[in-house]
């Protein structure tokens, strides 16, 4: 198994061309993936193969898609205050599916805490309530975008306080105790499982793409009955392979690991080699 997992951020809009707008990039990338004869499969299926629950053939010649942070730009068509109308990620996926007649699926890793998102809406967007969770259950029911965990509060540097015990913010590497991990990871699973029942969260993406030895080697593998996750993803630029540690699965990030369609095409070719 060699499956590239591509990550996009719907809040990444600073213009209206590929290099500075993840919405434009996603729309172009979907067509590039299709032209190259690759399928798009759910991220959960990649984990199923990794864990031996389904055969490798179910992800042969496939790519998986993920989105980070879970704002309205994942779901709604929005009027950006500087860059004008933007097709939401969900609409881009639907357009592609209609255009090509193929199945498409993505996983949105969401920041779970309502209080944290309300503040992030002020500090990272423009304070119009664009980071609420009112679309998550609709997304889960439709089946186009799965909702999974990006932690409780991202230990985000713009928050006045986070659950990290010493307030060492702006990194996830400081989540290195059972209490902090439970607050960031198990608490997020609990909230999502209640809000999106009967769906059960099972995948996690490390904020900032950052992990540490405690999370990878102790908390996640040894406390699975508490957090109930099956796998976790960082942002190492490699395809997911059968030999990977389930708590340290890689993803390629748009704008960081590729910046134009030609770079993505080379990345995909290398991943499939």
Automatic annotation (TrEMBL):
Pfam families: Polysacc_deac_1
Residue intervals of the NodB homology domain: 59-217
Protein name: NodB homology domain-containing protein
UniProt-listed InterPro entries: Glyco_hydro/deAcase_b/a-brl (IPR011330), NODB_dom (IPR002509), Polysacch_Deacetylase (IPR051398)
UniProt entry keywords in alphabetical sequence: Signal
Compartments (UniProt record): Secreted
PANTHER family linked to this entry: POLY-BETA-1,6-N-ACETYL-D-GLUCOSAMINE N-DEACETYLASE, PTHR34216
Top-rank taxon: Bacteria
